[in-house]
């Protein structure tokens, strides 16, 4: 079983914790993780881009010149794609970029993401994370004492508005609950900071 060190909010090492092999100790599958990240980014696209075709551009109803005898190439409308101010040929139209991946693929990808963080020694376990009031300075101090990298993902066992509001203004710091984790956020962070109570939840949900 892989083990990681546990810390308190002052950055003091308090011990170690054993992690489940099936969630944190598998061999990371890079191909599957890449597929899930691409899927996540595609699902974030709004798909609202739109261009005007020659039928939608205003004007162009009159034939520019007669068909023959002018020396010019024949033209039927000044709104054809080859004309300035003409329509766009094969331009983008509103569409839905979302697509689904099999559940087993998504589960393997997030297990691989967890395991890659443990293997790279980028996962830290916090004994508890409690704030009596909303204070960004306290979270900044805690992260500095822990020696975290610039990009930090804090995983909490349950919603805590004081923690969420205290951390949301810190550049590079993001908070998440166990049921809102995704592969992109896990791989994008440099320090994967998990509250101890959330570890057991992760093992139960993603085993």
Task: Present the secondary structure layout.
Elements lengths: L2 E5 L5 E6 L2 H4 L5 H15 L58 H17 L3 E4 L9 H11 L5 E5 L4 H7 L5 E5 L5 H6 L2 E5 H10 L2
What share of the residues does DSSP label as strand, in percent?
Answer: 5-15%
Q: Radius of gyration in whole Å, from Cα? A: 27 Å
How many strands?
6
- Arrangement of strands in the largest sheet: 2-1-3-6-4-5
Question: Oligomerization state of this entry?
Answer: single chain
Going by helix content, strand content and strand pairing, the class is alpha/beta
Distance between the termini: 14 Å
Helix content: 25-40%
Tally of separate helices = 7
User: H/E series, N to C?
Assistant: EEHHHEHEHEHEH
Q: Low-confidence stretches at least 5 residues in length (pLDDT < 50)?
A: none
Mean pLDDT: 94
């Amino acid at each position: 079983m892989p083990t990681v060190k546990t810390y308190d909010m002052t950055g003091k090492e308090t011990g170690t914790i054993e992690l489940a092999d099936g969630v944190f100790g598998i061999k990371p599958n890079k191909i599957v993780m890449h597929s899930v990240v691409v899927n996540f980014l595609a699902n974030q696209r709004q798909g609202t881009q739109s261009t005007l075709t020659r039928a939608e551009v205003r004007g162009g109803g009159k034939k520019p010149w007669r068909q023959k005898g002018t020396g010019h190439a024949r033209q039927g409308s000044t709104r054809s794609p080859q004309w300035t101010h003409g329509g766009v040929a094969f331009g983008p139209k509103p569409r839905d970029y979302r697509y689904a991946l099999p559940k087993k693929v998504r589960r393997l990808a997030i297990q691989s993401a967890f395991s890659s963080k443990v293997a790279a020694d980028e996962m830290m376990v916090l004994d508890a994370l409690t704030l009596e009031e909303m204070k960004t300075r306290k979270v900044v101090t805690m992260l500095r004492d822990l020696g975290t990298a610039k990009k930090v993902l804090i995983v909490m066992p349950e919603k805590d508005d004081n923690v969420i509001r205290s951390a949301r203004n810190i550049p590079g710091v993001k908070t998440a609950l166990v049921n809102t984790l995704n592969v992109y956020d896990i791989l994008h962070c440099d320090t994967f900071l998990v509250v101890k109570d959330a570890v057991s939840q992760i093992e139960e949900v993603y085993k």
